[in-house]
Amino acid sequence: MNSFAEIIATIKKYDRIIILRHQNPDPDALGSQTGLATAIRQAFPQKKVLIGGNDTEGLKWLSSAQKVSDEDYQDALVIVVDTANQPRIDDQRFDDGAFLIKIDHHPNDDVFGDQLFVNTDASSCSEIIADLIDSSDDLQLTKKVAYYLYAGIVGDTGRFLYPSTTEHTMRVAGKFIALGVDTAAINNKMNEVSLKQAKLQGFIYDILQIDKSGAALAIIDHDLMNKLNLNQEEANSVVSTPGRLKEISAWVEAVQKDDGTFRMHLRSQGPIINELAKEHDGGGHPLASGATAKDLDEVKQMFEELIKIVTDFNQKGE
């Protein structure tokens, strides 16, 4: 594990820096990526700092990616944020640069990079970036930087509702507020849903399968998405909906992709579910993970495995 000082020293060495994050980025991926890029640009205006990856339509209000050429990678420093494993990096040229840094808060199951800083106790990667900036005499936490990092923290803490929220998380967020970040505007934007997405939230309760253990499953297939005129990105946005029901302690949402496979969103109020995700081509946090199922049979298999996890958790009285 490297120190913040070592990472800052590496950043200062390179004239071209490319910052990447995971595929299908969420607010924390975009916030930590763009917050770090903005801080570096402000401190070192002579450096070329690029934000790579593919855009997420529903989050373009927060950040948009830039075009990064093969030539840009030559002799460049590449920093990957908020990404636990290499297959999920949203540009598989990530190893084409001269030096690679990993900064993350997920379990460090895939150790990659020439330097890395991983803190699984942090609420978000955005919180780590705030601490990195705070440790430096060169990088500065400005209102513009704080805007991105606040969105990232809010996204990964579920508006400060998740157990990952700590006293330190609140202190960091307090610094953003002191800088004048319009937190209400960010919160309102992140709460915003389209009419189609609101209708899908209603359908979720109708199609939700709830086991007596407290495990639940919702399958959002092509037929339902076509019925509501939703794309996959819009369907992914309702992952937190089942968590509002008191009868549910852990759940999985299966969203069918264009190739017929399913993106599996696992969430929990207590039972640990990231080991289940790892067994199905995924991973993530103990209470929030993602995986892939090749077909409905694997979806059902994962649900049965989730039921066992929740049942064991209940029997232990945890």
UniProtKB/TrEMBL annotation:
<dbReference type="InterPro" id="IPR003156">
    <property type="entry name" value="DHHA1_dom"/>
</dbReference>
<feature type="domain" description="DHHA1">
    <location>
        <begin position="227"/>
        <end position="310"/>
    </location>
</feature>
<dbReference type="Pfam" id="PF01368">
    <property type="entry name" value="DHH"/>
</dbReference>
<dbReference type="InterPro" id="IPR051319">
    <property type="entry name" value="Oligoribo/pAp-PDE_c-di-AMP_PDE"/>
</dbReference>
<feature type="domain" description="DDH">
    <location>
        <begin position="16"/>
        <end position="153"/>
    </location>
</feature>
<dbReference type="InterPro" id="IPR001667">
    <property type="entry name" value="DDH_dom"/>
</dbReference>
<dbReference type="GO" id="GO:0003676">
    <property type="term" value="F:nucleic acid binding"/>
</dbReference>
<protein>
    <submittedName>
        <fullName>DHH family phosphoesterase</fullName>
    </submittedName>
</protein>
<dbReference type="InterPro" id="IPR038763">
    <property type="entry name" value="DHH_sf"/>
</dbReference>
<dbReference type="Pfam" id="PF02272">
    <property type="entry name" value="DHHA1"/>
</dbReference>
